[in-house]
Write a structure and sequence with these properties.
Chain lengths: 430, 336
Amino acid sequence: MTQSMKTILLFALVAVLIIGTGILQGPNLALVILNMGLVSAIMALGVNLQWGIAGLFNVGVMGFVALGGLAVVLTSTAPVPEAWSAGGLRAWFAILLAICTVAGSAMMYKRTRKGWLVALVLLVGFIVYRWVRDPAVGAIEAVNPASTGFLGGLGLPVVMAWPMGGLLAAGAAWVIGKTALGLRSDYLAIATLGISEIIIAIIKNEDWLSRGVKNVTGLPRPVPYEVDLQNDPGFVESAAGFGLDATLASSLYVKIGYSLMFTAVLLIILVLAQLALNSPWGRMMRAIRDNEVSSRAMGKDVTFRHLQVFILGSAICGIAGAMMTTLDGLFVPTSYQPLRYTFLIWVMVIVGGSGNNFGSILGGFIIWFLWVQVEQIGPAIMIFLTSGLAEGSALKAHLLDSVAHMRLLTMGVILLLVLRFSPRGLLPEK
Amino acid sequence: MDFLNALVALTNFVLIPAMTYGSQLALGALGVTLVYGILRFSNFAHGDTMAFGTMSVIIFTWLFQSMGISLHPLPTALIAIPFGIAVTALLMLGTDRVVYRFYRAQKAKPVIVVMVSLGVMFIYNGLTRFILGADEQRFMDGERFIMRARDFKEMTGLREGLAFKTTQGLTIITAVIVVIALFWFLNKTRTGKSMRAFSDNEDLALLSGINPERVVMVTWLIVAALVTIAGTLYGLDKSYKPFTYFQLLLPIFAAAIVGGLGSPVGAIAGGFVIAFSEVAVTYAWKKVVTYALPEGLAPSSLLQFMATEYKFAVSFMILVIVLLIKPTGIFKGKAV
């Protein structure tokens, strides 16, 4: 069977799975799976660019996804004028000071190579930063803390947040790449793991910026609200024309709207990724991945190329993160868990086939489908398995309770099996 | 000015907690460094192995408590540790047999093995949560304090109290014993020497007739003991929650790298460097400084450099600085 046949068949399988879910478990669940599947596929494309094409090991996907979510808050929520007048400019000025301090000390280290001088600059900069920042932050967070307590965003259309998410993630990736690329691969892994935890810590604790653990709800949407559709006589009439009641029709309409937008983004990124993969640039990247030494000998600037592809991949993850937060309509910093947003994406890339863009998309859909369905089907299986046990026994109750943790186990087993028996994934690189 | 009170406050809030945390990190980092030295990959499943080991200790503790066995005034968990180590060792040897051995035989690239360890991490994580749940568990019993703050005040007449928890004392003493035993083993016994030889130069070690599978097996056994002890001490001292153990991965790796990956002495030094910096940066120094400075110069702010939530940022920054300035770590690890 040729590779393209296999690709078509496997994607047809995904379609059958999703349509089957629609028939058996209702169209709503099918669309939920499809939408998050699209987002997951974009994330997997980003990771594939880094790992599959350039061989960079990034375990900080969660951080970039969260930055995308933050971008939605910063771009699309309405600004809070009272908070801005209370200390908005001062707070941002403090951030600017912090950036200048770090950049200045880095430059100074390059020029003079004197550690104590750099430490002094950092210390003084830090004290000034705190002196500027603390009153501003206190004032901002005191403004109506129950409903705002943060600066708000720019009030722009929410779709603008998607490229913004990419930019934010790219900025963070530049900083990490500058420090950790060029060292051995394990170090990049640990550095990215660390930075993602720090990004989450910042988002959780800088209430003036992101409202922290108070969450931001009611983010603007690029699609109409269900309630408005249900109150629109024209919509109700056309829904009745399809034989649907208004509630179901409105929810399907909204979800399909998201699906179309996400599909468009996925297609754009896929086309760009395919073009990049088959371009001279893509060949160079793979050459670097396969043999760094010989590429260096051919005059390629390996560190710069790594930085480039690391930023691009992270930006794609940031875009996907912004799309996901838009889809949820709320920003919940505590929901970012590394197992879900970093390692699950890795499973998608490995299972799909690293180095193959279609493979990543396929992996994104299949793994996401399993992730949702194991949660749906797991309890049913467990009820069946424990049916022999006495009613009300402690073991039975415990087993039924812990079934939620089965999916971690399942994902781990899938990852190990694929790595062992089919290390090139479902759709291997050509 | 009141140096004595300043010193007591410093000991109470900074030195003792940092010593305790440093010992726990050092034991964890020793495990990472041993795996790196012998098996040559960064084990991302380390944090979850710790959680698993602690979980088995907790279950045995509950078993012993229900049987009425106790070590009063010491926590029952101490009797449970050997059993926990046995269970963890079985799990790790099983994992090695089923998972890692294949990649060793293939001489797979380290980064592939790291990825495999991610899969193992998922499985351990799932196992731990499946058996005991994801919630916080407390399993500390016995006497809580060696020295209570109130008793100290009455004893010395100072204004500041000095509290010394049993778990803190236990952690430090256990860590010292474990480290001495480990170094004795690595430097004096035949097996330990063969492990070091294997870590230094694999080919030469193989030529001298060292059995690699035996070295690897002994390594996993030692690592199982280290993680179970470290995890239990951490759980006794703070509390047990699987996710916290996963998050410990970052400071532990930072400690191992700062000290120099592959160097046991470095792992211990790194553990203490990370712990002391974390505590020092996130502690509000107002109290100590108020005592130490002359009257009237007392600071008005809390003098806290960073909120406690940013403690991961501290280990990360130290890690970055070391990577930039001296990538091999303080004690010349093998990684470049």
